[in-house]
Amino acid sequence: MTVTPPGTPARRRAPRLAAAVFGALAIVGTLLVPGVASAAPTPEPTPTASIAAGTTVFTLAPVSNGVVRAGDPLTVSVTLQNATDAATAPAEITLSLGSTPLRDRQALTEWLDGATAGAALDPVGTVVLDPVAPGAEETTGIGLAAEDPALAGRAPGVYPLAASYSTGTGVVTSTSAMIVPSDGAGEVGIGVLVPITAEPIAEGLLTADELSELTAPSGALTSQLDGVDGTAAILAVDPAIPAAIRVLGTTAPATALAWLERLEALPNSRFALQFGDADVTAQLEAGVPRPLSPGSLTAYMNPSDFPSPTPSPTATEGATAGAAAPSNTPTTSELLSIGPSTRDGVYWPAGGTAGPDVVAQLGEIVVDGRDAITVIPSTSTAGGADGSTVAARGLAGDADVLVYDTDASDALYEASLREKSSLRGAPLTAATAYLAFATAEADGPVLVSLGRSAERSRVGLGTAITTATTAPNVSPRTLGGLAASPALPVEVQDAAAAPERVAAASDLVADESEVARFATILDDASLLTGPERAELLQLLGVSWIGHADWATALADHRVTTAETLDSVSLLPTSALNLYGSSASLRFWVRNDLDYPVNLVLYTTPDDLRLDVQRETPIVATPSSNTRVDVPVQARVGSGEVTLALQLRSPAFVAVGAPESVDVNVRAEWEAFGIAALSVVVGALLIVGVARTVLRMRRRGRPTDAAASADDGEGAADVGVGDTGGAETGATGAKAGVGPAGAGAVDSASSDEGKTAVDAADSDGSEPTATDAEHPGALPDAEEQR
């Protein structure tokens, strides 16, 4: 750490030649020891790491993680980073070493934090650091030969080490340590926890494109496997990652499939984190009885991506006719598998969040016949909070726990994030120093964690793991070995509350409950509940803690959930008119889901004037509007009836908001209309018949007149004779025969014809066949007239 102490420590100047020689040794040591800080001077200024603008950072990084055994030299590198607008002045760096070891872990913590007041240090070397340009950094080395008197006769222990230089305003100092191990000490088991996780997401699973990027040769997931490959690290794998690969079936990216195969082939012991690395503390404090597990992931799978293997001829012959082909899609447990050597029932809450209640609640869970184990930091225990070493295997009441050393873990985590070896050596040395105290004080194996991070290089990760597993007097242990160690009593302290995370978990669980109720409209409810549970767990991921975008992700998810719950509803309906005694009322159901849904429309009238079909089953087609016809029957009377409409699932869960529609009932109008129509039809029939009769009469009158003329003509022939007779009669009349005779004949003929016509009119009969047989009658009569 960089500090500005109030005074300058006493020092003696080392020969310039020795400084040059051991600067070269620093370079050689860096090349020979993997994962140590580079002590080689940089020929050209290199860009500085991300530090606060307007500041400089001075870092002391011992080579070989500060471990100096008898006969070894001491080599360090010093780096000055300049984020100001001006170049720094040349600086003479002085390396100082304490003559007595630090007494305990607390003293080490204070020293590394920069508390150098009163420390007894002796200068052991100097070097001049060239000016550092703005936005650049410079690294150089300082060293002590193995035979240097400052190293001779050192007892085992952790010694304070410091590098400093003077400025115009004071002294800048960076502190570290030199570790002299005890060759005769027994080995202590050590476990190294390494999470395999991705960046936090709000979706249920990583997409194919995201997997392609993460599992590419330079991807973050590839770097994580590169870092743990060949080490004894205990893997804590987020099962959502292999699940995201497996749900894609044959469409999964080739790099992702290769990554998954490589993960499964690693011999490391491992356990599964919560899906999405969800924080178990937030879940339990939100009222969930036990940590949530992922539901079905069927919604993420396409059956066509999982072709069934070609059946053998024997199997085909023995198959039952009409039997369905077996599904080849993997089960949920198969999707979530993280490989061999897996121990179930291990929970790792976010550091410092699990109090005694959470640990006790997790300890009551039994998985595969074994009690669950909770992973907690040493600072969550009474002993660790005081700065003491806590063994890895503990028992908090009746709950089994694994306790990782907080100080060593924090240093290893910081080292795994450092890009440059010249800066990585400082936290690696600090971790080694803490482990030196831990192995000397622990009553059993110790545990360290590299923390959760999806973005670190394979070199940084691998170096941190190697530093822990190769520290003096330790030997790697597997997860099973740690769990089988004797458990020592520990007292778990209360944890600081995180009300915003508990509130978020409560809201998410409540929303999920609503989605589960709503999903009863589907044949397979998991098509909605599965993604909702997966997204809930992802949003509770530990990596979201302190993330600036978490609140936005939560808000977006809740909006999406509300849209899902509103995706099925009745469309508004305007007032309807019912003029008959029975009809079907038409309504429409909107379904924005990609799946068909099963519904029942409940229709309730507020008046007895209308009988309605109370329950109408519906299968609404996906992504469309579906018509619903509801039969109704009007009773006696008219008026306005309001129908209450409510969609429900087959499980009687209300779906969408209730609607109402006004129906104007005019049931008597139907009887009135039928009577009026009957009158109109009857009148039309009477008029038609009357017109037909009159037409027939008009047709019949000329025919009868012709027949009468024919009869008169016959009578004239008999009584009068032909024309000559008529003329004779006329002559006789003139002669006095008498007009009376002639008149009598005419009158008789006229009366006879009139009688015939009246007789025809009186009975209303149609013209007879006799009339039709004398077509010339009418012309004759006309001719006579």
Structure description:
With 785 residues, this protein is an alpha/beta fold. The protein has four domains: 179 residues, Immunoglobulin-like (Sandwich); 279 residues, TIM Barrel (Alpha-Beta Barrel); 100 residues, Immunoglobulin-like; 101 residues, no CATH class. Helices cover 37% and strands 23% of the residues. It is built from 23 helices and 30 strands. It has a five-stranded antiparallel β-sheet.
Descriptive key words:
785 residues, alpha/beta, Immunoglobulin-like, TIM Barrel, 4 domains, 5-stranded antiparallel beta sheet, elongated, disordered N terminus
Question: How does the helix and strand content classify structurally?
Answer: alpha/beta
The averaged pLDDT comes out at 83
pLDDT under 50 segments (min length 5)? 1-45, 318-325, 705-709, 712-785
Q: Rounded to an integer, what's the Rg over CA atoms?
A: 53 Å
Brief synopsis:
The protein has 785 residues and is α/β, with parallel strands linked by helices. The protein contains 23 helices and 30 strands.
Question: How is this fold's topology laid out?
Answer:
Elements: E1 2-3, H1 16-32, E2 46-47, E3 56-62, E4 74-82, E5 91-98, H2 105-112, E6 121-129, E7 136-144, E8 157-166, E9 171-180, E10 188-196, H3 208-214, H4 220-228, E11 234-237, H5 240-246, H6 254-265, E12 270-272, H7 280-285, H8 313-318, H9 332-336, E13 346-347, H10 356-363, E14 366-367, E15 370-371, E16 373-377, H11 382-385, E17 393-396, E18 399-404, H12 406-417, H13 421-441, E19 446-449, H14 458-469, E20 474-476, H15 479-483, E21 488-489, H16 499-518, H17 526-539, H18 550-565, E22 568-570, E23 576-578, E24 582-591, E25 597-605, E26 610-612, E27 615-620, E28 624-634, E29 638-648, E30 654-666, H19 669-719, H20 723-735, H21 739-763, H22 769-772, H23 777-784
Parallel strand pairs: 10-11, 10-19, 10-20, 11-12, 13-16, 16-18, 17-21, 23-30
Antiparallel strand pairs: 1-9, 2-7, 3-4, 4-7, 5-6, 5-8, 8-9, 14-15, 17-18, 22-24, 24-28, 25-27, 25-29, 26-28, 29-30
Helix pairs in contact: 4-14, 12-13, 12-14, 13-14, 16-17, 16-18, 19-21, 19-23
Organism: Microbacterium allomyrinae
Protein name: 2-oxoglutarate dehydrogenase
Pfam families: DUF6049 (PF19516)
